[in-house]
Model the fold of this input.
Amino acid sequence: MAGPTLRVDNVSKLYRIGSASDLQSGSDGPLLRALRSPLNNYRKYRSLYRFTPAELAGAAESADVLWALRDVSFAAEAGEVLGIVGANGAGKSTLLKVVSRITPPTRGRVRLQGRVSCLLEVGTGFHPELTGRENIYMSSTILGMRKREVDARFEEIVEFSGVGPFIDTPVKRYSSGMNVRLAFAVMAHLEPELLIVDEVLAVGDAEFQRKCLNTMSTVGKHGKTVLFVSHNMAAITRLCDRGLLMRGGRLVLDGGAADIVHAHLTAGGSDIANREWPELTAAPGDDAVRLRAVRAVSARGAPIGSVKSTEPVAVQIVYDVLEPGHVLSPYFTVVSEAGIDLFTTADSTPGCDQEAREVGRYTATVTIPPKLLAEGRHYVRVVMRSVRAKYRPFTERDVIAFTIVDSVGGLQDSWWEGKPSGVIRPALDWRTEYTQPQMVFDRGD
Amino acid sequence: MKGRAKLVLAVVHTVLNTRNDPAQQITVIEPQARWGLLDWRELWQYSDLLYFMVWRSVKVAYAQSIGGLAWVIIQPALQVIVFSLVFGGLLSVGTEGVPYPLLTTLAVVPWTYLSATMNGASVSLVTNSQMLAKVYFPRIIFLLTPVLSNLIPFSVSLILVAAAMLYYQVQPTAQLVYLPLVFVLMIITPLAIGLWLSSLAIRFRDVRIVMGYFMRLLIYLVPVMYPSSQIPDEYRVYYILNPFVGVIEGYRSCFLGDPMRWDSLGVSAVVSVVLLLSGALYFKRMERIIVDVI
Done:
């Protein structure tokens, strides 16, 4: 078993984005055009997967072709759990498709050892007319298992899915939750050497997602390699040992998962964690007051997109008062990823709700203490309120976002299984008093 | 003796297992496919999947129908009745002494398999394009599925052939020894055409539309409603270029005890094998880029 399970060498993937639509759209059908100019049509079709030397050299940066991957190289050892992060269109999914042999690379090569199971969606190969039992076999064999392997794990899969009594019912009669649970039970019992997972966690309820995460971390511990793409940064830091950051088809950073997440959120998401309106007239507000900037900043005052749960994060609001005589008081609300308002906090400067503001720039910095928010993404809604009823110069929803990452010293290190429930996670002091048993139970009968 | 045999078996088992242990197997993914007809080893690894795909398509085809597999008999039987009334009765097509219903039964049964399989194999990639984009397994499984699954209704509908032969008291003859040959030809012909058409269907969705009525027209170019003796001799050279003609004539000769028509069978075999080999080469090269052009 020498050498890495997976080695990706200088893999590039070029897509043609123009011709495909040419071939299919238009008032007359492709067949008609094929009859009119078969050669032309054939060339067009070939161009979908054949490229000119200029295009391959990358010289012609035309609108027609797109490098979805550019010279991506990395290797993964057995037992490593790799998280791939990047903005939409960074090439994450293309990379997974090349590694799982769904699409060939344009250049470079991939070498892998053992079997690959690729979960680009939940319930691949499920057919509504088939029963749960039959779909377990269908889906497992599609994902590369042998029948005897499924036989051996069948009871486990059924038990895990919790659909026991309905195992011989066609899945079209299942609730969508049962469907997903069954599909996931199959996935959890695959034993490939390389598991490829793309945003499976985007479906299902919180409990299901937690189950997914737990299973995936177990898979890693059993010496299997996992490639995991997700936009859920908390899941990446929790699950992965190593991260790959992709941008524009290139692998820009390869390192520890927490560092990668941090790099992704601060660099790629800087406009999200740090919103500024340099032009006065474009800024939210009116002639009286305008919002100029909202930032999430670290204890040192630097804009930051992701914060460790053990560190404070401050929300900074910069606004310009342009007209005298207004009594103004800004407030903001922190909203969870699920859209729940967690708390609202208003300007508590003495007298600010009675005295009119002078013209000038105001910078309010509000520190949210550490160990208060739960891990995950948080959004901020900023509102400017005035003493006059119903006069709100501006209300900016989701103006910035920052991510709380569970870090060393947080709950990640304890023996919690999965994510503790709750929208916030304050660190509270527990005082427990002990009373000897005879004082409690011996009532002196 | 027994112990020794066991030992030999165990050794063979170990050798086979280490050679085929999927956990040790190295896969290399490169831009260009290697030249070849088919990756047998990989197909073998997915043989269980092929089994379930075949089983699924049979089950799904008759799910929630009262008749179930009975439809497999009813459909060709109705066709035989209609053909017998129109061509055997009204138009009195010459059959050289063979009862028309028997003659047409012997053609309708293999033709049902041929048309269903060719149609199924040709559109298999397009209809499964959703799955193609989500998971990898040897793409040829999509084509092999209709080829194998249609054999089940075919086998069942052989009852119709047996019934017609019993009714008309036609004794089976030694010609039946050629049946396996005709049977193999019946399987590879639609597979060969499917290999070409399935990749084409991805490119031009028109293939799917055309296939439906093309098959309805093709039936006139095959001796289903009439015996091939009706074709004037000078045109027979062109007529037998159609590989389906050999298959249908083959079935008739085998069951009726007529001399085998080696000209049509030979042409059919050559055309099918050429199409099969070229189609396999083409398919092997095209299957990898299918997802990019869907």
In short: The two ends of chain A are 70 Å apart (CA to CA). The longest helix of chain A spans residues 206-221. Chain A has a mean pLDDT of 80. Residues 312 and 370 of chain A are 4 Å apart (CA to CA).
